[in-house]
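does this look right to u?? copper (II) ion version
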Amino acid sequence: MILLLSVTIGLSIIVFFPNFSEAQSELKTFVTHSGKIIRTTGEIIDPLYTVSTVEFDPMEYLREFNYGEVSKLPNGTTVREYTIIAEDDKVMEISPGVFYNVWTYNGTVPGPTIRATEGDLLKINFINNGSKEHTIHFHGIHPAGMDGVFEAVGPGGGKFVYEFEAGPVGVHPYHCHVMPLEEHIIHGLYGVFIVDPKEGREPADEMVMVLNGFDTDFDTENNFYAANTIPFYYQHHPIQINSNELIRIYVVNMVEFDPINNFHLHGNLYNYYPTGTDLVPSFYTDMITLSQTERGIMEFEYTYPGKYLFHAHKVEFSEKGWVGIFLVNDKTEYNEGNAEYDR
Ligand SMILES: [Cu+2]
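got this back:
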């Protein structure tokens, strides 16, 4: 009981008097990659940030789409309204024992996958609850004042409403566009924006993969790479799919520092639609190379059940976390009596 009490008091002191913990050990001065001078013990990134950790489930994120709050204008136009809140004080255990100060949209890295149909009117209520200026810059077509570059949104509850028509059809990134840009992106202020064609796409098992990396020691080189933030996650938790079922992946490369990333699929080839803007695939391949914010749509079906790797063929990236497994279930067998696999 006494132990519990002292732990509680200790924690309260750290929460309410953060300088108290700093005073306990010697502070050293470091220059970050963006030129900022920080003082830290070096043991943890920032003693202020040790009290909260981000919960993120890559399996949930994979197939989660945010269609917003839907309403109609008198002329029949669909309006989709979203609320996105930026924060920059959270810590996430991005790999066992590795804690990193993530900057988040709606509490996660990546932020929510915003989805709409071409021509819908989007209203994005942006609130900046961070300690620095942030914005949302959407890739796509919109008026200059909605670009999230020259309209910095102040910290501590600053607000801005981004309003534009969804377009063009495809898969686009969104990210903060406040300088130093690299710093705002690598900390995690990005997400995916999907614009569906009016006529829709063929039904498929759809998923989103954001290829990202983390520079945990601020030397402008990534220490970890991943599909959807957690290194090796889909290797340890294979993605279940069905044979003879169309799989559609919206893939976006958000890796900074390294000029290229790539996506190799085992035991199969995929149709690839760069940026997803064309409804006819440009390539039939098992390998695409992507520069920063380059993205596209991959479509494939597996004929043979079993376990298949997918990974960066830039081996350094796959060995540092950007690797996963598709577990292909036999559709025939599953249709005959294993309904629990049905999605
Ligand atoms: Cu920012």
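Helices lie at 2-16, 18-23, 58-62, 181-186, 233-236, 315-319, 331-337. idk if thats expected tbh
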